[in-house]
C-alpha cells in the first residue's frame, strides 16, 4: 500500500515511534511498567483526537473524558456480563446479573445492558455510541455557531453531568467504584501476564493506526479547511463551505478516538470508574495535548507519556509536590512554550537533524504558521 | 413525585426549599458576579475562581477561630469582619495573579483557561499544605442561627436572609461601580477597544489589574457565604466552578441582570428538586436542563444588543 499522503519526515517519525513502542519499551520494561505504559498510551488516543479537534479545528473540548467513558464503560459492561455468568454469581439473590446490581436490589438486567451480551455488537457500540453522542452535541452547538469558550464550558458541564449521573445511579453503573472485577474477554483471561503483554501490543498497533488516520485527515483537503476555519471562520463560510459540518465531523472523530482509548484502558487495567472520566481527567487530556504541542500528532503521544511518567515518579516519591508540579508545568507550557514539546523540537532540534539526514521535506506546515499568526492580536 | 402531597403542603415545601436555597443563590450570585466581571468584561476564563472563593472561606474560618479565642465578646459581629477580610485577601491575590500571569495572556483567551487551571492546582496544594487536608467548618454566632416563623409550616433562616441582603447590596454596588462610576467607564472603554482606551490616556494595565482583583474579591465574599452551607476543604471550590460558569453563560455573559436571574433559576430549581429526588439527581436534572436550554439558545437568557 502506498501512503502517498505521508512526507518522508512523517514516515521517519512514525518509524521512530513504532520502534519505541513495539521494540524498546517491551524489551526495556518489566511487565508491570509495560502495563503502566499501555495505560498511559490509552490517554494518547484522546490527546490525538484533541490535536485534530483543538489544534487544527480550534474547538477546545473539555469533555473528552465523556467519550473515554463511553468507550471504556462499553467494554467494561461486556466484560462484566461475561464475568457475571450464572455459575459465577449463584450466591446472589438474582444469579446472572452483575454483583453491584444485586447489592442495589435490582432483579433484572436493564435494557441498555442487553446489547453488551454480544461481542461484535459491543465493538460496534463502542465506536457508534460516542460518535452519535458527539454528533448530537456537535449538531446542536455548531449549527448555532457556538464556538470557543462557550463550547469548552458546555462540554465541561456535560462531563460533570455524566460523572454525577454515573455516581448517582449506582445500581445501573456501579457507582463511584465503577465496574470492577473483570475477568475474561470472550473466554480469554485478561488478567494473566501474557494477556497483558498481548494487549499492550494490540494497544500500540491501534495507536499507530489512529495516528495514520489522523495524518490522513490532517493532510487531506479536510485538514486544510479545518485550519482555515480555525483562523478565519467567516472567510471559509463565505467561500461556500458548511463550517458546522466540518466541525461536527472532527468533533465526532476525536470522540471516537477517545472511545477507543477508553475501551483499551478497560482491557488493560481491568476496571472502569467515574474518577477516570470526569472534569479533572478531561482537563488532563488537554494538558497532555498542550504539553506535547497542540499542532503535533506525535507531540500528543510524547506529551502524554512525558506527563504521565512525571506524574507517576513524582507522586511515588513526593506526593505533595505532584499537584504543584503539574500546575507549574501547565502555566509554564502556556506562557513560554505554547507549542509544547513539538515546538521545542521544531525550533531547536529539527534543524540539526535535517542537516545530518539531509532531509528536505515540506518547508513548513500550514497549521504551524497559522498557529503562530493566531497568537497575534485579534482585530 | 408530587402525588403524595396536598396542595397546601406543596406550597409550604416550595416556600421552605426556596428560602433554604437563598444561601446557595447568594453563593452563585456572588461567584457568578465575579466571574461575569472577569469573563464578560475581560474575556478571561478564570478556572481558579473556585479557589479564590475557598480562600475567602478559609479567611472566614480563621476569623471565627481568632474571635472565639481572643475576642469572645465581639464574636457576634465577626462575620462582617470576616467578609471584609475575605474580600481583601482574595482581591489582593487576584491582583497578584493578574500581574504575574493573566496580563501576558490577554491575546489568547483559551489559553487563560489552561493557565488558570494550573493555578487552581497550585492553590489547592497550597491550601492543603497550609490549612491541612481535613475540611473545616465555622461556628456562627447565636443570633444568626435562629429562624423567623412566618406561618405554621414556613420558617425562614436568619442567616439566609442576612446573606441575601448583603448579596443584594454588593450587587447594587457592583452595578453602580461598573455602569455609573468614572472607573467603570474606563473598564468598559478598555473592554471595547484596548488600544484606543490607552490612546486617550487610560492606564489600561491598572484598570485590568483592579478589575481582576474586584472579581476575585467578590469571589472571596462568596466564600464567606459558602461557609454557611458547606464545610471548607482544599478542593471544595472545584465543585462550584462548573455550576458558576453555567450560571454566567446561561444568564448571557456581560449582562449583570441575566447573571442574577440565572443564578436564581438554577439555585431554586436545584433546591426544590432536592426535596423530591436525591441530591445527585436534582443536580443532574438541573444541569441537563441548563445545557439543553443553552443548546437551543446559545446566547443565554439575556443578551445585550450589540453589533459585532
Automatic annotation (TrEMBL), chain A:
GO terms for cellular component: plasma membrane. One of its GO terms (molecular function) is branched-chain amino acid transmembrane transporter activity. Keywords: Cell membrane, Membrane, Transmembrane, Transmembrane helix. It is a multi-pass membrane protein. The keyword Transmembrane helix applies. It comes from the Bacteria. The chain crosses the membrane at residues 12-29, 41-70, 119-142, 149-168, 197-217, 238-265, 285-309, 321-345. The keyword Cell membrane applies. It is found in: Cell membrane. PANTHER family: HIGH-AFFINITY BRANCHED-CHAIN AMINO ACID TRANSPORT SYSTEM PERMEASE, SLR1201 PROTEIN. This is ABC transporter permease. The lineage of its organism: Bacteria, Pseudomonadati, Pseudomonadota, Alphaproteobacteria, Hyphomicrobiales.
UniProtKB/TrEMBL annotation, chain B:
GO terms for cellular component: plasma membrane. One of its GO terms (biological process) is amino acid transport. This is Branched-chain amino acid ABC transporter permease. Its main location: membrane. It comes from the Bacteria. It comes from Hansschlegelia plantiphila. Keywords: Amino-acid transport, Cell membrane, Membrane, Transmembrane, Transmembrane helix, Transport. Pfam families: BPD_transp_2. It is a multi-pass membrane protein. GO terms for molecular function: transmembrane transporter activity.
Amino acid at each position: 500500500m502506498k501512503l502517498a499522503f505521508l512526507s518522508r519526515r512523517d514516515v521517519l517519525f512514525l518509524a521512530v515511534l513504532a520502534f519505541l513502542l513495539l521494540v524498546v519499551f517491551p524489551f526495556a520494561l518489566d511487565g508491570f511498567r509495560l502495563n503502566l505504559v499501555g495505560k498511559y498510551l490509552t490517554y494518547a488516543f484522546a490527546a490525538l483526537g484533541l490535536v485534530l479537534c483543538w489544534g487544527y479545528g480550534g474547538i477546545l473540548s473539555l469533555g473528552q473524558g465523556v467519550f473515554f467513558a463511553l468507550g471504556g464503560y462499553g467494554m467494561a459492561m461486556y466484560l462484566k456480563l461475561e464475568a457475571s455468568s450464572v455459575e459465577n454469581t449463584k450466591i446472589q439473590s438474582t444469579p446472572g446479573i452483575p454483583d453491584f446490581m444485586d447489592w442495589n436490589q435490582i432483579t433484572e438486567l436493564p435494557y441498555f445492558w442487553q446489547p453488551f451480551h454480544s461481542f461484535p455488537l459491543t465493538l460496534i457500540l463502542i465506536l457508534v455510541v460516542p460518535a452519535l453522542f458527539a454528533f448530537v452535541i456537535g449538531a446542536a452547538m455548531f449549527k448555532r455557531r457556538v464556538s470557543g469558550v462557550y463550547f469548552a464550558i458546555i462540554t465541561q458541564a456535560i462531563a460533570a453531568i455524566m460523572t454525577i449521573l454515573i455516581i448517582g445511579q449506582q445500581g445501573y453503573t456501579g457507582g463511584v467504584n465503577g465496574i470492577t472485577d473483570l475477568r475474561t474477554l470472550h473466554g480469554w483471561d485478561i488478567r494473566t501476564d501474557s494477556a497483558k503483554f498481548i494487549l499492550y501490543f494490540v494497544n500500540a498497533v491501534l495507536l499507530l493506526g489512529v495516528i495514520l488516520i489522523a495524518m490522513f485527515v490532517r493532510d487531506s483537503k479536510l485538514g486544510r479547511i479545518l485550519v482555515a476555519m480555525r483562523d478565519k471562520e467567516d472567510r471559509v463560510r463565505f467561500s461556500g463551505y458548511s463550517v458546522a459540518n466540518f466541525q461536527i465531523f472532527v468533533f465526532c472523530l476525536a470522540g471516537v478516538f477517545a472511545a477507543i482509548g477508553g475501551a483499551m484502558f478497560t482491557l488493560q487495567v481491568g476496571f472502569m470508574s467515574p474518577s477516570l472520566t470526569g472534569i479533572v481527567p478531561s482537563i488532563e487530556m488537554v494538558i497532555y495535548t498542550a504539553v506535547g504541542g497542540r499542532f503535533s500528532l506525535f507531540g500528543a503521544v510524547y506529551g502524554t507519556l512525558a506527563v504521565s511518567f512525571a506524574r507517576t515518579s513524582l507522586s511515588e516519591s513526593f506526593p505533595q509536590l505532584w499537584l504543584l508540579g503539574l500546575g507549574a508545568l501547565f502555566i509554564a507550557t502556556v506562557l513560554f512554550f505554547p507549542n509544547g514539546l513539538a515546538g521545542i523540537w521544531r525550533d531547536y532540534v529539527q534543524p540539526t537533524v535535517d542537516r545530518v539526514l539531509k532531509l528536505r521535506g515540506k518547508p513548513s506546515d500550514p497549521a504551524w504558521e497559522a498557529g503562530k499568526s493566531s497568537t497575534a492580536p485579534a482585530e | 413525585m408530587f402525588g403524595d402531597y396536598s396542595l397546601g403542603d406543596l406550597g409550604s415545601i416550595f416556600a421552605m426549599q426556596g428560602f433554604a436555597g437563598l444561601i446557595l443563590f447568594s453563593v452563585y450570585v456572588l461567584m457568578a458576579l465575579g466571574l461575569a466581571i472577569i469573563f464578560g468584561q475581560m474575556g478571561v476564563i478564570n478556572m481558579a475562581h473556585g479557589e479564590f472563593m475557598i480562600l475567602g472561606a478559609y479567611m472566614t474560618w480563621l476569623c471565627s477561630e481568632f474571635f472565639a479565642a481572643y475576642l469572645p465578646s465581639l464574636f457576634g459581629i465577626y462575620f462582617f469582619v470576616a467578609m471584609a477580610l475575605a474580600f481583601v485577601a482574595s482581591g489582593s491575590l487576584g491582583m497578584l495573579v493578574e500581574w504575574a500571569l493573566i496580563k501576558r495572556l490577554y491575546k489568547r483567551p483559551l489559553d487563560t483557561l489552561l493557565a488558570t487551571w494550573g493555578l487552581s492546582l497550585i492553590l489547592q496544594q497550597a491550601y492543603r499544605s497550609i490549612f491541612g487536608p481535613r475540611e473545616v467548618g465555622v461556628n456562627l454566632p447565636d443570633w444568626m442561627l435562629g429562624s423567623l416563623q412566618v406561618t405554621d409550616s414556613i420558617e425562614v433562616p436568619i442567616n439566609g436572609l442576612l446573606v441575601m441582603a448583603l448579596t443584594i447590596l454588593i450587587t447594587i454596588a457592583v452595578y453602580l461601580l461598573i455602569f455609573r462610576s468614572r472607573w467603570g467607564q474606563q473598564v468598559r472603554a478598555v473592554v471595547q477597544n484596548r488600544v484606543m482606551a490607552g490612546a486617550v490616556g487610560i492606564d489600561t494595565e491598572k484598570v485590568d489589574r483592579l478589575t481582576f482583583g474586584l472579581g476575585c474579591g467578590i469571589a472571596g465574599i462568596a466564600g464567606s457565604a459558602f461557609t454557611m452551607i458547606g464545610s471548607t476543604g482544599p478542593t471544595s471550590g472545584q465543585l462550584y466552578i462548573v455550576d458558576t460558569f453555567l450560571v454566567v453563560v446561561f444568564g448571557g455573559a456581560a449582562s449583570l441582570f441575566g447573571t442574577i436571574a440565572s443564578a436564581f433559576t438554577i439555585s431554586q430549581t436545584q433546591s426544590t428538586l432536592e426535596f423530591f429526588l436525591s441530591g445527585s439527581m436534582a443536580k443532574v436534572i438541573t444541569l441537563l436542563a441548563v445545557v439543553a436550554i443553552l443548546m437551543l439558545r446559545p446566547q443565554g437568557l439575556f443578551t445585550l444588543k450589540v453589533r459585532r
